[in-house]
Every structure is written in structure tokens, then in C-alpha cells.
Design a protein that fits this description.
single chain, alpha/beta, 4-stranded antiparallel β-sheet, 6-stranded mixed β-sheet
Length: 210
């Protein structure tokens, strides 16, 4: 079953083409990697899937719903991308508590602490996120993507600032999500990492699929 379908999606910003006639689909329960250099359009594709970016032409279908038509934003989709949604003046735990409130309090306080421990952060730490290293922020962003228990998870460059141990943990995390039947979209500059975990890889260059 296809859970994501993009058909002839194009977008220009300041007269520059950032997405050029992008078409692809993703089946449920797979790990789909996206490869390409900085500025190639990977993040823009993810934003179009989420509904954060409104295409000039084409259609985006997520879980059977047309984004920006049937729904403004994609439902049952969570993400980790460039610290979006993270409030740096709060602790990691408070960030997850706020997401949990938006999700109608699906998780208990102990579940939130356990999730932070799972991604390599201390669930009881009161330190503000703005004091975190980049690697710690990446781990918090992963926790933000997992707390909603969505069927589709988008991970934008999650390998950035992770050491070898962190990458091994990330692989295990992604494979565990697949075992649970989740669909994972992941971008990375690390082609070898993508080849090791992905069921298929989509290569992007200058807003086009190669």
C-alpha cells in the first residue's frame, strides 16, 4: 500500500526552482533513503510531505489525503529536521511534555523520561536545550519524532554530529521502527549509511529526482 505519493510537484522561491517536477511514491513499512548534496531539495521534499511547503504545481498525497486540499498538514506523520519545533529555553523533558499535551497526553511522565534515556539523554536533566551540544539536540529531535508514535517518521540528516556509536544507535532505532510497521523517510550525506539501512534510495539533485 502506498502511504506517500508525490506527482509532478514543483516549487519556486524568489524565481529559483527548488523542486522540479518531483514524482515518487513510498510503500508502507519500508525505509526510504534520500541522497543528495546540500541544497539539492531533500528537505523541501520532506516539507512538502508534511504540508509546511505549498507546491506551485502537482499533488502530495499522504495516507490517502491530499495535503493542502483535504488537510492542511499531514496527519500521523512525525519528524526530526533542523531542530524545528524544539524550544531552546526549555529542558528536553519539557519539550516532550509540550508535544505530549498537543497529542492529548498519550504518554505518561515515566514514558517521557524513558524515551529521553533511550535516545541517550537524561530524562531528569533540567538543563535548557540551548546549552546542549549539536549531537544532544539531534538526539532530542529524534525523541520528538518518536513520542507521537506516528505511522510515518521523517528524519532529515539525523547522522549530522553523531559519532560512530551514535550512528550504530540510530541504525538500531530505525530498524526497530520498521519492525513495528512504521514507514521511515531519511536523508543523509552519508551514502554508505543510507545503503546499509534503506530498502530503496531516491537520489536528488537541483530539485530533481535522478
Amino acid at each position: 500500500m502506498k502511504v506517500i505519493e508525490l506527482s509532478n510537484v514543483s516549487k519556486k522561491l524568489k524565481n529559483k526552482s527548488i523542486l522540479d517536477n518531483v514524482s515518487f511514491s513510498v510503500e508502507a513499512g519500508i525505509i526510504c533513503g534520500f541522497s543528495g548534496p546540500n541544497g539539492s531539495g531533500k528537505s523541501m521534499i520532506f516539507k512538502a510531505v508534511l504540508g509546511f511547503l505549498n507546491p506551485d504545481t502537482g499533488s502530495v498525497i499522504v495516507n490517502g489525503k491530499s495535503i493542502r486540499k483535504d488537510e492542511l498538514f499531514a496527519k500521523d506523520v512525525s519528524f526530526s529536521m533542523d531542530n524545528e519545533g524544539i524550544l531552546e529555553d526549555f529542558s528536553a523533558k519539557r519539550n516532550l511534555e509540550l508535544i505530549n499535551i498537543l497529542n492529548n497526553k498519550k504518554q505518561t511522565a515515566s514514558n517521557i523520561e524513558a524515551l529521553l534515556d533511550y535516545v541517550g539523554l537524561k530524562g531528569t536533566d533540567t538543563k535548557k536545550v540551548k546549552e546542549f551540544s549539536l549531537g544532544m539536540k539531534k538526539r532530542l529531535s529524534l525523541a520528538c519524532a518518536l513520542i507521537s508514535n506516528s505511522s510515518i517518521i521523517i528524519l532529515d540528516e539525523p547522522t549530522n554530529a553523531l559519532d560512530d556509536k551514535g550512528k550504530l544507535f540510530l541504525k538500531e532505532l530505525i530498524f526497530n521502527q520498521k519492525k513495528e510497521g512504521k514507514t521511515v523517510l531519511i536523508s543523509s550525506h552519508d551514502r554508505l549509511f543510507l545503503e546499509e539501512i534503506s530498502d530503496r534510495i531516491i537520489t536528488i539533485s537541483e530539485g530533481r529526482i535522478l
